[in-house]
Amino acid sequence: MDRVDAMKVFVTAVDEGSLAGAARRLKRSPTAISRALNLLEARLGVELLHRTTRALKLSEAGERYAAACRRVLTDLDEADMLASDERSSPRGVLTISAPPVNGEEMLVPIINEFLDRFPDVSVNILLLDRQVNIVDEGVDIALRIGHLPDSSLVTTRLGGDVRRVVVGSPAYLAKHPPIKQPADLAKHHIIAFTNFGLDAWNFVPAKGSSIPRTVHFAPRCTVNTVRAARASAISGCGLTRLYSYHVADYVRDGRLTIVLADAEHPPLPVHLLTSPGRLAIPKVRAFLDFAVPHLRAGFARIAADAGTHLG
Fold first, then answer.
1. DSSP 26-80
2. Above 90 in pLDDT, residue 52?
3. CB 199 within 8 A of CB 191
4. Angle, alpha carbons 205-210-216 (nearest 5°)
């Protein structure tokens, strides 16, 4: 059995979530996929996947092996591409990860333009509400919001830092008590979004104090997606907290209004991340060269709105 091929079968089965899905993607029979996995497990002497009739679940050993396989396959792809004419001609599959809403509303249109310009490149877009491990998960480029830990990854700062803002509809705000300081939120209906606090929001200290202000609440509505929180706020259900790019267009057209702008935490930086070994690959370099100016312009527009409409 070819070890590299077995690794590809295993990783594809994990990604697709089923033997049937792996068979379709690799254009092989389910029996062939199952046989390859059985041989791989026999060779390693451990169970990698717990199989059911409907799904696959990684064992503890399988999780470690999947991460190792992704690193090996990524390194092999890099070696092949650098030895081929891809050094001068972008081609192949480019894997990009980003937060869901930002990815859909800002990054996907840029990717579509990129694909028009580079017909030999395909893109695998992972819109995930978590931080990916670029190396272990085989990601070429990741868009990340927030401060970055020290690492060997190559970072490109996009500017247009992102604010964490509290918003409500003008109609809602007109019917409820004015909001001058975080403590005033106790008199309001709160739409809690999973990522920003389900029972409390924190704000910077008041002038002359060093103690952050924390507001506890019992939410009127709790949601687990940006779109649901935004829609509830627009409908007048209450106040919610989101990133500035989540609401920029809606504040600009008057459907939402920012409150407590002077109590916000400092803005968060936005970066594109990639591993050093990927920069020499033409498809990665071409995308960075193409996308960075567009993304900088987009985040700069949102930051400018934050200084006018969102203030």
1. HT--HHHHHHHHHHHHHHHTS--EEE-SS-EEE-HHHHHHHHHHHHHHHHHHHHH
2. no
3. no
4. 45
pLDDT per residue as tens digits for the range 7-50: 899 988 888 888 888 888 898 998 999 899 999 999 899 999 88
Residue 264 · residue 164 · CB < 8 Å: yes
The answer to whether 271 and 162 are in contact (CB under 8 A) is no
Q: What is the largest CA-CA distance in the chain?
A: 71
What integer pLDDT is reported at residue 86 of this predicted model? Answer: 52
- In angstroms, rounded to a whole number, what is the distance separating the alpha carbons of residues 61 and 39? 16
CA distance 215 to 212: 10
CA distances from residue 303 to 164, 200, 309 in whole angstroms, order as listed: 12, 26, 10
User: Does residue 263 have a pLDDT over 60?
Assistant: yes
Strand ranges, E, within the chain: 49-51, 56-58, 92-98, 121-127, 141-145, 154-157, 164-168, 190-193, 200-203, 213-216, 221-223, 239-243, 257-259, 270-274
Evaluate if residue 203 carries a pLDDT over 90.
yes
Contact of 82 with 117, CB cutoff 8 Å: no
pLDDT of residue 310: 45
Residue type, 244: S
Evaluate whether 56 touches 14 at the Cβ level (below 8 Å): yes
Residue 218's CB: how many other CB atoms inside 10 A?
10
Q: How far is CA 229 from CA 144, 232, 247, in A?
A: 21, 5, 10
Q: What's the pLDDT tens digit per position in 66-76? A: 888 888 887 78
Count Cβ atoms below 10 Å from residue 92 Cβ, excluding itself.
Answer: 18
